[in-house]
Every structure is written in C-alpha cells, then in structure tokens.
Design a protein that fits this description.
Elements lengths: L1 E8 L6 H12 L11 E7 L6 H12 L5 E7 L1
Antiparallel strand pairs: 1-2, 1-3
Length: 76
C-alpha cells in the first residue's frame, strides 16, 4: 500500500521560497503568475494493514509542522 502526503504552509504564513519562485517566473516573462505557494509531497510505502489513521499520526508527530502547515493524505 502507498500513501502520498501533501504538506503546504497554512494561509497567512509567509512563504519566502514561494515568493522567490514567483519572482523568478516573472523575471522569465511569465507575467500571468500572481502568486506561488511551495509545499512538499511525501510518498510512503506502507506494510499491509497500515491505515490512514497511522499516516495521520505520522503527520502529526513528524511529517508536518501543524502549527504552520496543513496536510492531506491520499491512500492507494
């Protein structure tokens, strides 16, 4: 079983890395870009019997800083 965790900064949290990407895109002539938020994707190979609750616990304890980040989980 696989799980994919998407981690993003919460709305209202400054994203300097996203802002640097936005600035670079504008410099390359991509004037239609209004904003960029950068996040991360974590792919987990899980043992049989692992549950979404297990992945949620992983996120809460290690994979996401829940003070400033939100996350979503996709299981397959």
């Amino acid at each position: 079983m696989k799980a994919r965790v998407h981690v993003m900064l919460k709305d209202g949290v400054l994203d300097p890395q996203g802002e640097a990407v936005r600035h670079a895109l504008l410099g390359l002539g991509f004037g239609t870009v209004g904003g960029v938020r950068q996040g991360k994707v974590i792919e987990l190979d899980l043992a049989d019997g692992a549950t979404e609750a297990d992945v949620t616990e992983m996120c809460e304890k290690l994979l996401a800083n829940t003070v400033i980040e939100s996350y979503s989980i996709q299981m397959s």
